[in-house]
Amino acid sequence: MELKSYLKTQKTNIDGFLRDYLSPLDIPPRLKEAMQYSLGAGGKRLRPVLVLAAHDAVGGKSRAAVAVGAAIEMIHTYSLIHDDLPAMDNDDFRRGKPTCHRVFGEAMAILAGDGLLTQAFEILSDPSHMEEVPAEVCVRVVGEVARGAGSTGMVGGQVLDMISEGSDIDAAALQNMHLRKTGALIRASVAAGALLGGADDEGLEALRGYGTKIGLAFQVADDILDVTRTEEELGKSTSDVARGKRTYPSLYGLEGARAMAETLVTEALKSLKGFDGGATPLREIARYIITRAH
Amino acid sequence: MELKSYLKTQKTNIDGFLRDYLSPLDIPPRLKEAMQYSLGAGGKRLRPVLVLAAHDAVGGKSRAAVAVGAAIEMIHTYSLIHDDLPAMDNDDFRRGKPTCHRVFGEAMAILAGDGLLTQAFEILSDPSHMEEVPAEVCVRVVGEVARGAGSTGMVGGQVLDMISEGSDIDAAALQNMHLRKTGALIRASVAAGALLGGADDEGLEALRGYGTKIGLAFQVADDILDVTRTEEELGKSTSDVARGKRTYPSLYGLEGARAMAETLVTEALKSLKGFDGGATPLREIARYIITRAH
Question: Which of A98, A152, B1, B17 could form an SS bridge with A102, CB 3.0 to 4.6 Å?
Answer without folding.
Answer: A98
